[in-house]
């Protein structure tokens, strides 16, 4: 489990085509400290497994399904990525519960700068809109954010200087794809309510 608090901006240093998958090599001195084979690291919100680790770099295999359902397939050598290690039991939950299982992708539609923050509008797949509510939580490229406005086809988030400086959303321009993970609690509530309604019929 992750919390959506990005630990560092990493970089893709190599991409190897494996046919039905890709192998990424990524540089991230913070997240690789103490890393070992089999550990999990979230890359732009996608939970990946460490295959190998050497110095401040690690490799991870990304299967075709993940490449198709996330924005990882658009990454190339030199791409910057958000990196986060799983939260440890007893740690503070600084963001919200994030699984690292991408529900879909959106597109940055518009950036509106202000003096101390920036509003970013992002497209929202129709099948995810019911899970996104004003002042609720959403994960964008692995970043835990609060929804400012929730529409049927888009939502907005407000980014503080720290988020702009330390994550990919600081430089992603309109047209750029982003990974989205909605609040898991909303999906569980929907499932339970559906089961309950079915049981009373």
UniProtKB/TrEMBL annotation:
Lumazine-binding repeats lie at residues 1-96, 97-193. Pathway: Cofactor biosynthesis; riboflavin biosynthesis; riboflavin from 2-hydroxy-3-oxobutyl phosphate and 5-amino-6-(D-ribitylamino)uracil: step 2/2. It comes from Streptomyces broussonetiae. Gene3D superfamilies: 2.40.30.20. One of its GO terms (molecular function) is riboflavin synthase activity. It comes from the Bacteria. Pfam families: Lum_binding. Keywords: Repeat, Riboflavin biosynthesis, Transferase. Its EC number is 2.5.1.9. CDD domains: Riboflavin_synthase_like (cd00402). NCBIfam families: PRK09289.1, PRK13020.1, ribE. Catalyzes the dismutation of two molecules of 6,7-dimethyl-8-ribityllumazine, resulting in the formation of riboflavin and 5-amino-6-(D-ribitylamino)uracil. This is Riboflavin synthase. Residues 1-96, 97-193 form the Lumazine-binding domain. It catalyses: 2 6,7-dimethyl-8-(1-D-ribityl)lumazine + H(+) = 5-amino-6-(D-ribitylamino)uracil + riboflavin.
